[in-house]
Amino acid sequence: MAGRASGSGATTRCSSCSAPILRQLVGHTAALTVTADLIPLTATEQVTVREPNRLIWCLYRAGPHTTPRLRWTGADHPAACPHPHVTEHRCPPKQPNTLF
Predict the structure, then answer these.
(1) Partners of 23 in the beta sheet?
(2) What is the pLDDT of residue 64?
(3) pLDDT at 87
(4) What confidence tens digit (pLDDT) does each residue in 32-75 have?
(5) Beta bridge partners of 86
(6) How many other CB atoms are found less than 10 A from the CB of residue 26?
(7) Contact call for residues 56 and 73 (beta carbons, < 8 A)
């Protein structure tokens, strides 16, 4: 399934950790709201971070001046895909900064 941008589909920053993210509706019939990191993953990083509730997405871009779109990386996704792959965003754990 191809991704469909919600609203402008522009990138933004996480309000908690300030990481660059992309928020889009992905799918046609029963779309999912996905908040994805914009840091591309290597193949080994994809295996490490993939969990049942944390998916890997293909960050497809039709041209240099188009909005990036998230696509499913299911069984029919090509193994030699030239586009970067990203994962759903999770804020890093906060470090305690006080004694109390």
Answers:
(1) 35
(2) 85
(3) 93
(4) 889 999 999 998 998 898 888 888 999 998 888 888 899 988 88
(5) 57
(6) 21
(7) yes
DSSP 39-50: S---HHHHHHH-
List pLDDT tens digits, range 73-84: 888 889 889 999
Is residue 24 within 8 A of residue 70, CB to CB? The reply is yes
What end-to-end distance do the CA atoms of the chain give, in Å?
48
Taking the CA atoms of 30, 31, 33 and 37 in sequence, report the sign of the dihedral they define. Answer: positive
The token pair at 33 is 């709201």
Alpha helices (H) along 1-100: 43-49
Is 37 strand, coil or helix? strand
Of 3-12, 18-27, 52-61, 87-96, which range is least confident?
Answer: 3-12
How far, in whole angstroms, is CA 74 from its chain's centroid? Answer: 14
